[in-house]
Here is the input.
Amino acid sequence: MRKLLSFSLILASLGLLTSCAPGKAKSEKAGEKVELKYPMEYVSDKNAIEGGTFSIGLVTGSPFKGIFDPLFASDSTDSGLVSLMNDEIFWQNEDFERMGIEGGMATYTFDTDKNEIIIKFKDGLKWSDGHALGVDDLIYTAEVLGHPDYTGVTYDPSEHGKIIGMKEYHEGKTKTISGLEKVSDTELRIHMESLSPKLISGGGALMGLSRIIPKHYLSDIPVKNLTTSDKVRKNPLSNGKYVLSKLVPGESMELVPNEYYYLGKAKVDKVFLKTLTSQVALESLKNGEYFTYWGLPSDIYEKYKDFNNVALIGGYDLSYNYLMFNLGHFDEKTEQNVQDRKTPLQDVRIRQAMAYAMNLDEIATAYFKGLRTRANGVTPPVFNKYYNKDLVGYPYNPEKAKELLKEAGYVDTNGDGIVDKDGKNLEIKLAMAGGSDISEPFAQALLQYWKEIGVQVDFTTGRLLDINVLYDKIQANSDDVDMFIGGWSVGTSLDPAQSTSRTARFNFPRFVDAENDKLLEALNDKKGLADANYRAEAYKAWEKHYIEDIAVEIPMFFKYGVEPVNKNIKQANQYHDSARSRIFEQLVDKTPLKATN
Here is the structure.
């Protein structure tokens, strides 16, 4: 549900495996929907076998962190691994709506007169150790999320603080959250100050609560110590398909079926996942070393698309790439962002100039085989109700970029090719992760575009960064980072407050803006609970202001996710509704098929 920071985005669950390969072909217009090149589902015509080991190759430039707790997993790799062991309790339909959708462990509805969320669990649910699962676990999850010692990034006081009693609990004034009323072991009523349309898709106050954690197993551990405990790092409990049985930290993991999984025991004997580098991924795919791969670099798409051991499925990704600017810091005492960094990038005209200087269409063709399209906003086209096709964004316009720099007082006064102001050249530090074959040439192309408008851009520390180092620098707002490139996996609640409100920890630019506050608040209006179009229009108004007027985040690419499916998998798909996306892919042979071409 939340946004996750990563340059190489992974949506990882066995029901929805996506690679990092982006879209189909360059479109004439930013964000324009192109005709789907590949089907969204693969089904083998062979009979499924019983058992077998489902093997996964995790393509990454770094060891995974291994924080197997959904409240603390802050990058997409760990979140993907968590998804193997922890199911979201609410299901969604193909429009990403969750309210009232049957099929999951729980459902929820609203009482608009009383400002209540009513959550009901199925009877007989269990954790992987056989202990009952239900309301107590959801209450405990909320208590960890709102705890004064919570060290994750999901808690948002502007949203979770609307649960009655949460603010006092978060400030350490109470031991419980008064607004959480346990009606029974299977029914919980959440008393709210107000209800928001965000709740329809599981956002707002429900953000982060769709993946619950076991109270009976973890409550004896202080919240501040959860991320270092063996119960999280080595022996996590499961309510999902699989249970962790063996771990080589950062390198590999084995999982076995959860005997108590509410949808029935998985029909394979084991899941084996191992990390491998992008340099060996292509040969591994050709040799059929794994049944599927997470995080395949997009630059090898042209090389593997014709392998006869794989079938390609595709669909629009819930993600996009961006350029962001470092403008301030997060104040831990006030829990608010402060836009106070001394940098020329505080001038919106300079940020806009950096955007117009990038020839993203050219990059999409040269480095991504035309399979990405220039993003015109922060809303992927898969969101039919919310995508704004009329938003222009920042098409390549170097002359406009130069005009904006001049308006900001930057001109080249000494003929060195770099614009300057008050005797100081405009020099900017860029942070970006390496890890794939195209990372360096892609980054160098951007540096050249900016140099052509007279801006000197150099890499932070002089080189591309390890992705974990990049995360740390961004979250700390390191002073040697002026701007950075990454990607968002967009939460299905499409809640911009998670990353753009003045209280959001995911607001990495650390910007604050009164008009932005006003437009975000409009998204919360109760009108959206009754009028399906109200929130969509309010969202488009917010996005237009965020992109055109604030420009602290420059959208770069939308992606069309392509996944190579080994033909010895029985079934795989890229659907977004839970009923279809959670179909388990049995095997038709115990070993992956090797390519012969």
